[in-house]
Amino acid sequence: MIPASEYQNRRASFLSKMQEGSMAILFAGVAKTCSADEFYPFEVNRNFFYLTGIDQEDSVLVLIKADGEEREYLLVSPFDPVKEKWYGKKLTLEEAAVISGIRNVVLNTALASRVESTLSGNFSDFSPIRRVYLDMEEEHKIAQGMYMEDYRKNLLALSPTLEIYNAYEMIVELRQVKSPNEIAELRAAIEVTKIGIASAMAKIQPGAYEYEVANEFHRVINDNSGYQGTAFPTILASGVHTTCLHYPTPTDRIKAGDLVLMDLGSRHGYYCADVSRTVPADGVFSDLQKTIYTIVLGANKAVAAFARPGRTIKELQDFTIEYLASECLDKKLIKTKEEIKEYYFHGVSHHIGLDTHDPGDPKRSKPLVPGNVISNEPGLYFKELGIGVRIEDDLLITQNGCEVLTKDIMKEIVDIESFYKYRQH
To answer: What total of structural domains would you count in the chain?
Structure first.
């Protein structure tokens, strides 16, 4: 669990990046419409959550940096006895203050007047504010019928000379280096994922449906995480479907001779595990499957040895391509190194945190630093052979290299085959 003091420190870091004479207005968001009067489950905006720890829609964080002062306000929904009967309890002002460490917690009905008075300087403790930071994340819905772009236009209509800055990159930069508390949350998510994978593996056999294996993973992780759910939609593919990167419809039966690819993860306090494992439906790899699996496993281990502070994700990708191409060429799986792009067509790494794909440098050229948590997911996908293999671990970048956070989730051929041999007895 992240303590309130850490949220206070995060806001202090963000405030240090804000210009003098500015205000930040950050929203938790609201649930998006699914169809008719049905809504998707609410998912809090992760940048808002990162700065507050508040997981409740219609909440707003206002930060002011002006006249040599810094001030924080958290705005939450008022108590509504009718809505509570339908949708459950909301946080009290006192509860929100304890979680976030923000002393000034008020009702969100005060947002419009508070923003207007701060911008104009009327009925405000500060000189008129001329700069506002908003989280302009695409598709960020902040109220029913209103997205962030709508709100930005409303502010400009209220104050045409206002300078509006995007806070998204500022917060994302803070999120990339994980604190010890965040790493503890990730370890907890990984531990639950490990338990879920073992239980899912035990369900894998010829004749089972792909979704039965996925359902077993979902059941077990919820039993062991207090119903915190998956980090992302589970990918559970068998046979030729293992060559589809994000196979969406796990409705086929697993057949004898198939490989089964699992890309899945639990979450803990919104921190995400992201793990892939590939196992044989029969409990034993064929010779060809073993050859391809061994190449991918070798790449996985080589990337972990290569990853360290100062390297970039682009360098990890280039390293992976060279490794896979050389090994596939050596094993006569391809005729030229250039062919590798037909059988390995995704990135080897991305940042992991409050999002499974934590926002990072889109050019992948920023040097890694201690505290970064990234994926390590080489793969090979031979559709004509019906063989796809991906092995994904989560790496914590340390002072001298990296720690494989998912090292206890089995991936060695001997361990996988022993697991199924033991199950049969």
So the answer is: 2
Which of 174, 197, 216 is the C-terminal boundary of a domain?
174
In this predicted model, what pLDDT tens digit does every residue of 213-235 receive, in sequence order? 999 999 999 999 999 999 999 99
Q: Report how far residue 119's alpha carbon sits from residue 110's, in angstroms, rounded to the nearest whole number.
A: 14
Spatial contact of 237 and 250, defined as CB atoms under 8 Å apart: yes
Residues 233 and 90 placed together within one structural domain of the fold: no
Q: For residues 197 and 177, what is the distance between their CA atoms, to the nearest angstrom?
A: 28
Contact between 299 and 320 under an 8 Å Cβ cutoff? The reply is yes
Q: Are residues 189 and 116 both part of a single domain?
A: no
- 211 vs 250: CA distance, rounded Å: 5
DSSP 384: G
- Say if strands 275-280 and 33-35 run parallel, antiparallel, or are unpaired: unpaired
Nearest to 391 by CA among 374, 378, 375, 409: 378
Q: Let me know whether 82 and 229 are in one domain.
A: no
The identity of residue 334, as a single letter, is I
State the DSSP string of 15-82.
Answer: HHHSPTTEEEEEE---PPEEETTEEPPP---HHHHHHH----TT-EEEEEEETTEEEEEEEEPPP-HH
pLDDT digits (tens, 9 = 90+) for 240-286: 999 999 999 999 999 999 999 999 999 999 999 999 999 999 999 99
